[in-house]
Amino acid sequence: MTTSQPLKFETPDHGEETARADLYGLLASLFYAPPPQALLDTLATAPASGYAVLQHGWRGLVEACRELSAEAVRDEYEALFIGVGKPEIFLYGSYYLSGFLMEKPLIALRNDLAQLGLQKADTVIESEDHFATLCEVMRYLIASDDVLQANLAIQKNFFATHLQPWVQELCTALESHPQARFYAAVAHLTRIFFDIEMQAFDME
Asked: What SUPFAM superfamilies does UniProt report for this protein, alphabetically (predicted)?
């Protein structure tokens, strides 16, 4: 069963926080484990995002946080992403890219992470192609102050290779799933945010 421990890579993150990094970090937290009540309460009173185009998706998440308890969100998380046997919704890139878990896309991802000097900490259970982990990598690439390791070109390449090909399919699956309430709202925000990211990277 997925634990609530935070994702950590065995390399320091000394970069300044940005709005993009914060949102990637939030998505990483929400998809890695069901959020505690304290986080739901914080989000329920959070102001609208600074990105105007994100405000509709952000409002949906805020409303979901106001309406649902941590227990209800935990039950939803377990029903969608854990379940008995096969999960209702997979959160692994390999599944969407190849149809199977632990396949070639994961090997390619591990090679790219190694080139970046990143590796999964021993305490992290999920494989590196888990959506939360990929969001955490993006957060790191944005926030890191190492320009040789984390710059816009590297962000664009990592995003285009390991997230862009399948994230919309994940969002569609969640937004249309009858058991998804909180995570339908999270998926809607994710879709809008990733649309912005894709457009921004295309302009570079």
From this structure: TorD-like
pLDDT value, residue 51: 60
**What's the whole-model pTM score?**
0.87
3-state helix, strand and coil shares in percent for the chain, rounded to the nearest 5: 60, 0, 35
Q: Mean pLDDT, to the nearest integer, of 186-195?
A: 96
- Whether the per-residue pLDDT at 107 is higher than 70: the answer is yes
Instruction: List, in order of start, the domains of the chain with CATH numbers.
Output: 19-203 (1.10.3480.10)
Residue 120, strand partner residues = 9
Distance CA 137, CA 141 (A): 6
Residue with tokens 């998926």: 187
Asked if 23 and 193 touch (Cβ cutoff 8 Å), the reply is yes
The two tokens of residue 132 are 């939360």
When pLDDT is cut at 50, 70 and 90, the band that residue 48 belongs to is low
**Which of 95-98's residues contact partners 24+ apart within 8 Å by CB, and which partners?**
96/165, 96/166, 96/169, 96/170, 97/165, 97/166
- Whose structure tokens read 């919704």? 89
Percent of the chain exceeding pLDDT 90 equals: 64
41-to-67, 68, 85, 188 alpha-carbon distances in Å: 10, 10, 32, 20
The owner of tokens 């039950």 is 75
Q: Supply the DSSP string of 127-178, one letter for each residue.
A: -TTBHHHHHHHHHHHHH---TTTSSHHHHHHHHHHHTTTTHHHHHHHHHT-T
